[in-house]
Amino acid sequence: MERRVLAYLFVSAFFMFVMLTMRPKQPPVEDPNAPDAVAQQDAEADESADVDNVVEDADPAADGDAKTADDAAPADRPREAKWFTIGSLAVDPEDPTLGDKALITLSNRGAGIERIELIERNPNGHFRYRRVDTRSGYLGYLAPSAPSEIDGCKINVVGPGTPADLAGLKVGDIIVANGTGVIVSPSDFQRWLEETTPGQTITLEVLRGTGENRETVTVEAKLTQHPLDLIRLAKSGGPDQVPGNISRLSCLLTLAKLNTTNLRVGQKELTKLPSLFDGLWNVTPIEDSENPGFEFRFPISASEAEQVAKGSGGLEIVRRYTVPAAGSGYDIDLQTEIINKSDVEQEIAYRLEGPNGLTLEGWWYSAKISPNWTGGAGARDVVYNTASEFHRLMGLPKIVKQVRQRTEDGVDKDEDVNETLFASSGDPKTNQLRYIGIDGQYFTASYIPLEGESQTDVFSRGSSMLLADLKVLNPHQTQAANVSFYVDSTPRKIAPGESLTDTLRLFAGPKRPEMLEERGLSRLIEYGLFGAVSKLLSGFLHFIYMILGNYGLAIILLTVCVRGAMFPLSRKAAQNAQKMQELAPEFKKIAEKYKDDMEKRLKAQQDLQKKHGFNPLSGCLPMFVQLPIFIGLYRSLSCDIELRQAAFIPGIQWCSNLAAPDMFYNWSPWMIEYFAGRGTGWFGPYFNILPLVVMVLFMAQQKMFMPPPTDEQQEITQKVMFFMTFIMGIFFFKVAAGLCIYFITSSLWGMAERILVKKTIKPASGGGSLALEGVGGDDGLETSGPLKSAPKQKNRPRNPPKKK
Known about the structure:
This protein is of the alpha+beta class. The strands form six sheets. A nine-stranded antiparallel sheet has the order 11-12-13-14-24-20-19-16-17. Strands 9, 10, 15, 18, 21, 22 and 23 form a seven-stranded antiparallel sheet that branches. It folds into three domains: 83-239, PDZ domain (Pdz3 Domain, Roll); 253-409 and 416-526, Distorted Sandwich (Beta-galactosidase, Chain A, domain 5), CATH 2.70.98; 533-760, no CATH class. Mean pLDDT is 80; it is low at 1-73 and 764-798.
């Protein structure tokens, strides 16, 4: 017994050790006078100063010798940054679902994508995918900046159909007051907007025009809920953003090879080449009502190309963004054209970066898993598929780990810190790309070759790309690091006056199974080990929802159906447990009788089990049958995008997102970060009710069905089990509300089931005496219990009591 007591104490100590070692830790406090510490403080200050919709540069060339847009720019290049939008929030009053599904904001600084907002509507006119990490009102993405001559907030873009557009705000307007106070900066305006609510009507005072023609205009705007900004700048604010992520436009392009000059390891752009990342491109709209979009052009003169590689001639880089009419509304066609404007043949290759800044919603509670046996998944990971490797996921934790290992003092000049995903080799299948993208819990942004055709000779290499400063990024928030990728095209020769043209399709949208299946992206939904069970249960859940119209009730009914189907197995397991409890005293007596003879003890126990038809392994079978169902149901609820924004009780803010914790109360303003920090705290920023209900029910089951301890050993066992239940409740605190509803329903069913089974077991006749004669040897053991084991003998002689 002493050894068992020590074992239980060891288990308790182990769980205490896990609690202490896995608890979130803050990064070490550095000397504020040290250069690195000062840099970190400056970076954190810059991060906190950045707010949603604030304009900032895409990412200047890191080489230090690449030219910027204003550095000796030719006359045919613009000198002013501008923004352009594709799509509209305008709603058809008869059928809101017929409108656009995405509002895309482009910038001529770098010719990249700055923002993609998902604006698909439900039949009731609400956003199908709204931003769930904020509850303030939405005016629209304005890309505001600080005006040079006066205080205020300058508007640089107004999306069609947004509340700002409907209110009459225009590009160039300067917001100077909000009806209750003065606006002195974009940050000031953003902080005020965060205090508003959807449906609220706000009053703004703006300055319109310039010089003597400037006038003061008062406008009123009715705010709405935020649509989901699937792609945004990493420093664009929001409660789920973390310090250390680098802001960068998505889908940037530069040259990777110009004749004899190639990009070196660690370079972002070719030395002495005008910066395509930070340069200002010429923009013209594409006049096509079926496929609206914009064309960006960047000319490179012969003298500029000559500085990069001797004998090079003039070029023009052309990029086209269009939304195809035949697409889903979440598709964007990216066309790259390189025109040789010289009279000599030139060999060209380009580098195309992927999207970044994918939504971080819920990263601190995400249940995203990796298909790899080693390495986990982050809030956003890099996925790709080639003909030789098929589907692969490069998890964010692995990317961060490898960059950290390969980086010394921030830069390693001798080795590429990025991880190569695929590269050309002797086998042409190695660079036969089928797709590559950024994968989130419920959304993705992926490049796909048009018409499902693999790109055999277009791309020679692909690599992941970490967009985060690891010196600033909190080690406990690496799951939220910004990540992207790039692909290098195969060098190709372009004859004088000719051009090369490549096209990829960017799918930036929800991970709905039917959409992913059409694009060959179905592997992006990771169900885990029991995927077939998960898909079956998910389909059944949707069928129930079609009948009930509420996913909360559908989960309850699904749990009842699953537990009801397993009732025969559960009943047998409960009966087995009941027998085990009733035979426990007999096993104890056998152990005491033969404590010095292991062979006789085992023989006596086997005879006892055989006599009463008890098989200790029979109780394990139901558990093994239920395990795939339990895990499959867990994964189906974790992967189902339809649970996102699904309310348990419509019209109530609490538990309005079954894919997230119920978020009963936001305690982060006053609770210490150790408990309420995002990623740095045990419980997260919200106090949740449903996990506590789950833990209470688990403890109630333990109290109801566990017999009173008969000795010290059983008492220790029960205390350890109680402690483990408490620990499990802590880990359940950030579980999605839909899963908590499943556990609550399953626990209530289990309690009712055990009570019912206990009542159906027939009690032993004749007072429940259990005689075990001849069990394990010549001597008999007289025991008591509710089971009937042997016929009662009449006038059985009893041993007379010993005389004192």
